[in-house]
Amino acid sequence: MFDDRTSALASTPPASGSGKRSRRMRAILELLTEQGAITLQDLVATLGVSAATARRDLADLEQQGLLARTHGGARMAVPTSEIPVRLREGQAPGVKQRIGRAAAALLPDGPLAVAIGGGTTAASVARSLVFRNGLTIVTNSLTTASEIGARPNLRVVMTGGTIRPHSFELVGVLAENAFAAMNVGAAIVGMDGVSAVGGATTHDETEARTNAAMVRNAQRTIVVADSSKIGRTTLAPVVGMRGVHDLVTDDGADPAELQRITDLGVRVHVVSTRAHETN
Prior knowledge:
alpha/beta, Rossmann fold, seven-stranded parallel beta sheet, three-stranded antiparallel beta sheet, Arc Repressor Mutant, subunit A, 22% strand
C-alpha cells in the first residue's frame, strides 16, 4: 500500500487584482477548454454574475490573448488545455503548500544540489526550502528564481532558454543543455498528468523535453502533483513511472491509481486536504 507517513504534514497576478475575480477568470478558461466556446448568457448563469461583470472579465482575458470575443460570447484564442501560471497560483493553495512541505521533507540534510522545474506546485517546494543551508537550486522557472534568488543562504542557478508565456519557464535547447551539464541529487518536477500507464506528462512537448533533461542527470526524481492530475495522461511524456522515485500528492487522488503507481516501485506520499493551515 502507498506510504501515508507524510499525511499529517501540513508571480504575477492577473490584471484583475482580486482573488475572487482570478477564480472567475480561471473558471471561464476551464469552461472554454471543455466546450471550446461559451455564450455570455451561459456564463452569467454558470458563474452567478451580472452580464456587465462577465463582459469585463472576457475583455480582460481577450486583452491577455487568452480568448477571442465573439458576438454574444467567447471562444478559445488558441486551442489549449493549460491554464496560465498567473491564474493557477490561486488553485488549491493550501493543498499545494502541504505538498511542497512534504516534498521538501524528503530531501536529506546537508549540502545538496536540487533541480526544480516550473509550475505552482514545484514552486511551493522551493518556498519550503528557503531556510535550508547548503543547497544549490538549479531552476528554469522565472517565478521560482524571483522568489528565492535573493536568499543569501541559497545558491540559485538559472538555465537559459526561451520563455513559455503560459508557465514562465525557460525551455528549449539552452535549458536542456544546462540541465545536461549538471549532476543533481534530486529533481523536483510538477506535472499536468501522472498515471501508471502514461507516466509523468505535460501539455507541451518542448517543456517535456526540458523536464526530461532535468531528471536524466538526477539521482532521485520527485514528482509533485495535486490529486486532479492523478490518473490523467496529457500530450507529452517526460518520464515513465519506473523512472520516478517519489510521488507527492493529496488524499483526493484515486486510491486505486495510487496503488497501481506504487506497484511500479514508486514511493507514494499523501498529504491530507483536511490539515489545518499554519500560515
